[in-house]
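Sequence in, structure out.
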Amino acid sequence: MSTPTHTIPAFGLGTFRLQGKVVIDSVSNGLELGYRVIDTAQVYENETEVGQAIADSGIPRDELFITSKIWIAHFAEGQLIPSLKESLRKLKTDYLDLTLIHWPSPEDKVPVAEFMEQLLEAKRQGLTRQIGISNFTIDLMKQAIAAVGAEHIATNQVELHPYLQNRKVVEFASAHGIQTTSYMTLAYGEVLKDPVIQQIAESHQATAAQVTLAWALQQGFAVIPSSTKRANLESNLKALQLTLSAEDMARIAGLERGLRLTSPKGIAPQWD
């Protein structure tokens, strides 16, 4: 079954900051509850455990959508594809559904074209079905598009939540047919304490997390919330059934405050 271009499933399970038995349990629980999209990365140092949980689940590979991300240490010519093959070995699979460049190369040490061309070659070799980017600004997206063409860039995965709505980046991506994946959609739980979100949640008899995830989904973003608690994993899935009103959406849109929680020193680009 060949995947049409740019079909990133809307709802997945993130594994950032989860390691060892914790990540095995989270992924195992998620798969039992019906999650079929798993998002990991080389730098999370949990690909082996994620692969183990997937293998133990017995779920056929073609029912799953597995994403990983290439770390900045593997961008130089001739290094990206071997690092991806190592990820495949750890994840116990022959291919990824989506492979992302995790962060742009700090200070442009490796030009965007150099690593994007290697990533496209990995796609041509069948090591990954789709390719994309993460933490890319408008300028970096322009460079990636110039290198491989927008039609090959499935998504830009960025920090995006009610307190950081990243509208310029989203608009630019959308205009070029690149889907946005929101990470940290719950802003490490910060937005769950927000009175506006709590009021909306009450009016829908939903949780603040469900409301926040539904807000992102309704804008066409893919989301990858993570949790170590089975009850939360199950509850988060209910966001797919929740429909917010135009007024709800407008109220959440008004919460923008430019609160960026992820900007690693020496790695993060100049944000838009």
